[in-house]
Write a structure and sequence with these properties.
Number of helices of chain B: 3
Strand order of the largest sheet of chain B: 1-2-3-5-4
Radius of gyration of chain B: 15 Å
Structural class of chain A: alpha/beta
Order of helices and strands of chain B: EHHEEHEE
Largest sheet of chain B: 5 strands, antiparallel
Strand content of chain B: 25-35%
Shape of chain A: globular
Structural class of chain B: alpha+beta
Oligomer: heterodimer
Number of helices of chain A: 5
Strand content of chain A: 25-35%
Helix content of chain B: 25-40%
Number of strands of chain A: 5
Distance between the termini of chain A: 31 Å
Distance between the termini of chain B: 19 Å
Largest sheet of chain A: 5 strands, mixed
Largest interface: A-B, 25 and 29 residues
């Protein structure tokens, strides 16, 4: 199961997927985040991964889709505080090179 | 002390929601398996979920919902999983699965499964697809 918390902070949107971001939840996560980006066009979205226990290739696909949507609207998407499994999977897929996870949400907001 | 080997078996509907049950079962199984390097565990979980996801994603729509099975086994040296279904044969080259480019939204599943475990094998056995995944515990 996945719960998605969305907050506004320092002019940015902080999205926190809590639980498992897998093929079960990836589509609705993607829709939730891209809807939010459409309403706050051009701003920075930080995905707080500190409570994301597990991610699969569908979840990674959703993050890539959200990154594209954010950039197309003139904003950006940054990852923060990934857990151990998420860090490993981002590395194995080379996505850590484009999504460059920051250690904390605050760091991601400052960049 | 849990007896070796530590086994779990699942018989599941071929539907997206079954992925949650596989993850629940993996979590419970690891508690009995005992000490394993976290990288071995996370790689193994990732690989099993990618293969189960592949089974769900490529289920033949014309046949209605089918079943698939997941068997987990840990002994003193290895952790292994067997994932099988009775769908059509899979045409796959596991010797060098390609990882999708970073701007692609799909095409990472098999490469991730391959990278997550020490050994990944696919066989057609009778009328079943059988995926076998195995890693050394340390």
């Amino acid at each position: 199961m996945l719960q998605v918390d969305i907050d506004s902070r320092d002019g940015a949107t902080v999205v926190a997927p809590r639980g498992r971001l897998t093929m079960v939840s990836a589509r609705s996560f993607r829709e939730t985040v891209t809807d939010k980006i459409a309403r706050t066009g051009g701003s920075v979205v930080v995905v707080d991964l500190s409570a994301t226990e597990f991610i699969d290739s569908s979840g990674l696909g959703a993050l890539v889709a959200c990154l594209k949507t954010a950039r197309q609207s003139g904003g950006d998407l940054r990852l923060a505080a990934p857990t151990e499994q998420v860090t490993m999977v981002l590395g194995l897929t080379n996505l850590d090179r484009v999504l460059r996870p920051r250690a904390t949400v605050d760091e991601a907001l400052r960049d | 002390m849990t007896e070796i080997p530590v086994r779990r078996s699942l018989d599941l509907a071929v539907e997206v929601e079954s992925i949650e049950l596989v993850l629940d079962t993996l979590s419970a199984w690891w508690l009995d398996v005992g000490d394993v390097d976290p990288r071995v565990r996370f790689g193994f979980d990732t690989a099993v979920i990618e293969i189960a996801g592949n089974v769900v994603e490529h289920a033949p729509a014309h046949r209605g919902p089918g079943r698939f099975s997941v068997e987990l086994t840990a002994d003193a040296r290895t952790v292994s999983a067997t994932v099988s279904d009775d769908a059509d044969p899979v045409d796959v080259d596991l010797s060098a699965p390609t990882m999708a480019d970073v701007d692609q939204e799909s095409g990472r599943g098999l490469a991730l499964a391959r990278a997550g475990v020490d050994r990944l094998r696919y066989q057609r056995v009778g009328d079943r697809n059988v995926w076998r995944l195995e890693s050394e515990r340390a």
